[in-house]
Specification:
homodimer; 205 residues; Rossmann fold; Arc Repressor Mutant, subunit A; 10 helices; 14% strand; elongated; DNA-binding; DNA-binding (chains A, B); LuxR family two component transcriptional regulator (chains A, B)
Chain lengths: 205, 205
Amino acid sequence: MIRVLLADDHPVVRQGLRGMLEAEDDLTVVGEVSSGAEAVEFVANDPPDVVLMDLRMPGLDGASATARIVASGSRSRVVVLTTYETDTDILRAVEAGAAGYLLKDSTRDELVTAIRGAARGETVLAPSVVGKLVGRVRTPARPALSAREVEVLRLVGRGLSNAEIGRELFIGEATVKTHLLRVFGKLGVSDRTAAVTTAMEQGVL
Amino acid sequence: MIRVLLADDHPVVRQGLRGMLEAEDDLTVVGEVSSGAEAVEFVANDPPDVVLMDLRMPGLDGASATARIVASGSRSRVVVLTTYETDTDILRAVEAGAAGYLLKDSTRDELVTAIRGAARGETVLAPSVVGKLVGRVRTPARPALSAREVEVLRLVGRGLSNAEIGRELFIGEATVKTHLLRVFGKLGVSDRTAAVTTAMEQGVL
DNA sequence: CCCGGTGTCCACCGATCGGTGGACACCGGG
DNA sequence: CCCGGTGTCCACCGATCGGTGGACACCGGG
């Protein structure tokens, strides 16, 4: 019997998951929690075989909870089940050690199959998620912006001039200019507005 | 007996809703659809008392579907049940004629109570939604940007100079400057980057 | 008829930006 | 020890921006 913990802050979703899973002979829901912290605590006390984990939850989010569960050496496998499909979400969950990543538009069969696979030690991903990971590996990563560069850019986004940014950060205007020129190079733009919008598109801002 | 139609593209959510509602003696789920178009068609053929409508669905979204149902003169009442809580979502749904707006973190009791209220002809809103609407009414609306102003601003967001924008739109650079100055005034900024980020925050871009 | 909004355009000019071509110190990894 | 990345800074100068203070035509609502 595969024991499953449900971690989602929406009662409707937990209700739906319970209904789908308990229709199967070999699956049983052993608990429901509504935050990442509760999930970590539950796993520590009574490890299930699989945790169905949402990502966006109050307090400790699903990716952080996943990281903690994996880091604890627990035998519980985490399958992320979420609405979101952004690169950031997927990468954070995978980096955190999730054994699976499904979307909430999955059918009952897909869900059940994924849980069984995860319990066996397999890694299970929604097809669209596989595509994103592959695309990510193929695209050479741009050099990341440093913390200071992000800080400067954030202030550019608020409409401050280079001199104003310098005063705000207690650095010279020339230093601000240097940071911006490096940001332009890293983002492949030549204008501060495009730097800001590109950074927003890439999730940097 | 209150007859309820479920409109949500996530099987998990429909499963959960069905489970919650059918535990009540006076509620029955008469159908499940996964798109706005299907919801409109169902209501036209077999009007339920209440439609529980998600917003983000493939094809025709929930707000548009709500508008069509209301415009058709149907006696069905639409209660939006969604994860999202942005001003845009709420306003679109309310403007579309929704009789209610709940969030998916609502409890079973809140949900059931809302459906009963909607069936009686009441308008039911989540407390946080009420707060947003009140805040919206109090804040004097900024003058909207004209289509041309938005067009110019979108190009600014891509990093084009005023001259380049003029060439792109087949207008003079001076005209571009005039549009931008008016945009600055309407958005309360004095710099093109801030104009773009403010417009993005307000959902204009 | 009047008026506000919109889209179009102009000249002037101070302020700011961005590109070029430099520089130094520190730090961590190889 | 070497090197790349990072954070700091400079001067110069052409290009661009933004503010000011104008202008005209069209359109739709009151």
